[in-house]
Amino acid sequence: MLTISQLASYAGVTVRAVRHYHAKGLLVEPERDHSGYRRYDAAAVVDLIKIRILADAGVPLSRVKELLDAGDDDFKKAVAEIDKRLRLEIRERQGHRERIARLVHGDGLALPPEAVAYLERMRELGIPERMIQGERDAWILVAAQQPQSMEPFIRSKVGQLDDPSIVETYKELEAMLDWEPGDPRLETIADQIVSQLEAISPEDWAAYTDADQAMPDELVALLDSMFVEQVPVARDLMRLVEKRGYTGWTKLERIKS
Question: What is the maximal distance between C-alpha atoms in the chain?
């Protein structure tokens, strides 16, 4: 007869596991002998080994008892069902692994390749990471709501990065993130933004506005609200730009006279 420690050793499990199987009703717990110890026979070792094998194979403990008591046909049917469930779980977990792998690439987690390439281009041009992160978050919202429109949206933005003045404005805007409302330097920023808008050719302006027109008003409002929430001077800047003839932020439009 064996002690619980010896039983566990023969079956290749821990004493804690044996007690857990007792609690689950999978392994019969013998009465204590006159010395106060529980003693196990060879049959208990065999049962415990079967339980361990089934558990190691991924069989839920809730079904182990059913399999131990099943006849050959029922056992085969139950195993086939469990195997089907495990295969489904493997596919699900593989999907999880693929999503986790995408986390390594950061921007690619929730953005299409063209948006990732656009953000990488910003990095190559030396645009501060805080500005890039703001762009990334905005594009994540757009991609979630308008995935079919991402390509024209991004195309309209990519061309702007060829303008050195726009790249320089991005860099200057990064410092603006820490300014307080009422900062007099906002006048210069507003002048720069409007100057760049005025420099856009009629053809480019048509392409720029055509892409923006595809964006629903609710999404535009959400993106504008994100800018206002994240940048303390956002409202001031938008008011200054409006004084200079343009309204909005995500979708800047000339004010009709």
Answer: 103
